[in-house]
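FW: tagging you since you asked about this chain on Friday. Here's the raw sequence from the shared folder, copied in full. Didn't touch anything.
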Amino acid sequence: MTREAACDFLVFSDDWGRHPSSCQHLFKHLARDHCVLWVNTVGIRPARPDLFTLRRGLRKLRDWRRPLRQVDERFWVLDLPMLPLTGRGIAARLNVALAARTLRRTLDRLRFHQPVLWTSVPNAADFIRRLDERALVYYVTDDYAFWPGADREKVRRDDRHLTGRADLILAVSEALAETHRTPRTRLLPHGVDFEHFAAAGDEPPELAAVPHPRAAYFGLLYEKIDFEAIRRLAEAMPSLQIVLIGPATVGLDVLNDMPNVHLIGPKPYAELPAWLGAMDVLLLPYVRDGQTEKASPLKFRECLAVGKPIVARNLPDLVATADVVRLYDRSDQLIEQVRAALEDHRSDLPSKMRSRVADDDWSRRAQQVQAAVAGLLADRPDVTVDSSPPPGWSQYLTRRRDATLFHDPRWPALIARAYPSNKPFCLTARRNGQLVGLLALIAQKSRLFGSHLTSLPWFDAAGVLADDPQTAHALCREAWRLAERLGGRWTELRQTAPLDPQLPQRTDKAALRLDLPDRADQLWESLPAKVRNQVRKAQRCGLTVQAGKAELLADFHRVYVRTMRDLGSPPHALRFFRLIAERFADEIDLVVVYHASTPVAAGLTLSDGRIVHLPWAASDHRYNAMCPNMLLYWTMLEQAVGRGAAVFDFGRSSVDSGTYRFKRQWGGHACPLYWHYLLPPGASPPDLQPHSARHRLPVAIWKRLPVSAARWLGPRLIAQLS
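HL: got it, structure written out here
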């Protein structure tokens, strides 16, 4: 594969060469076809005053003297000089800014063009969109929030941010795939260096003084190893020699006085098969916690390749191998299982164990990664951003059953015309020239409420439309970029169906819809007796109804402004509704209920042929005893049946609120709304609830304004609200 044909990789992971992690195994193979810049760990947990941290720090200082080194023809390793700070604050942000600058210079020097950013550590979230990456791949190998000393809140926040923004998520276990579930998540189990571990070789001379039977654990000796269980095993079986191979990051005082426990220290990767092949039993004595329950231990596959009896902690990822591996839950079971393993002389056990991983070598896993990334880059649509809907937008809507009237290309320009401070952005996704997705956004600037983007403000649902999850994600990714460029605090995507389970969302609102019969008399008979009586009461009170179009806008707006004032919400300008009547002349209908010549209730509906939508309705509460709202709604429903509509959409309400119950009495069924949020790292969804403590006082003040003041001030505020 030529340099031109292959993508470059920018990799954030552990320290290259310190221990053979799964990420290192993968990129040893991927570097044969791709150029790789490997960035050594930028730190998940803060520095601690212990010997292990001191040694790591001294190695880092040594490496910083020569930060960039080439380890193979296509492979470079970079140590980023950074302050020993993690988490939040000015110093941490300065760290990220300096590191990003160094990375950009290094990428330019190596002539890496738009690399694929690959990360196996969550704090790489700090670098998203700073390095002109072509795509983002999140390789999930662990739940780092459970790492001792980690800033759990920041790790989880970074993890959520990566999960939401990654173009491809590769998880090593079913449990991790489930906690990172998106339409872009794939399971990629660990591989194994099978030939290496299956060839045991000669017994190391250091073991000559260690008699059989021998049991061994190899790997990092850290907080996730159950040293108490190892001690009890050593006490219960004094003839068993327990060999611990690997560096220790914690004190091992609990084992120091055990004569049959041998602390060997770390051994070169090349020598591990000889050490493991000289054992009688291999141990995986993990503690069981939130991290290990989701883990898929890499060394488990290496133990299977060795072919020696294995006794392991009963973790979810190992259950499927219970026929060839001995699992335990408690310390006493560990002792029982080790004794049973020493007495297990099945001649076919080694071959059965090795058959489980014989086809899982790292070269095959690397090929799977190559195929997944190549497919991602090949199928990824091109997304453009325009100030108005480009050609083809309307035609695309006609073939989308989930498109609503509020996806219509006339809305962005209408909103910008009504409120010039609102800026429209139309995102269009194309694959091979074919339109495959779209998203209209309105940018609203507000000193009071924060600058933000919405699809679209004031309407129930006008969010992402896409042919496939990858296109939906590409549109979201471009929306994120747009918000960052504009300084938006959040982007709100209003959907009628869940878009991505990893995106923050509100589900407290629902649209209420009523399936309409063919005839108005059928609808009347289906209504509850109480509803019919209230409609008749309005008629007996002498209320009259007028239906029409733009000629009724002034009377509609008169009732609407007062109702919005009474509700504590700012109203739209009359100009906004005049523009709707002008641009949607065929779709709009107005109904106004009068007491004598005074308008007391009014509604504005928009029809797309199949569905009649009711985005705005109002009723003067001073006339509630006459039930004008009941006459209004019945007239609009009767009119919708006359139009031949199949569904009447009452519009959204907060679930179980008074308006929600009012709409339900007409027979409407709830259709959940999913309002998703695209947020900067560490941000929380905005508090937009009018009944929240933050907004309680402004709402109360607004309700006391004169109607004329609400009419004048409202449009200036509604332009900043969604």
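FW: Residues 90-110 form the longest helix (21 residues).
HL: agreed, and Residues 1-5 have pLDDT under 50 and may be disordered.
FW: great, closing this out.
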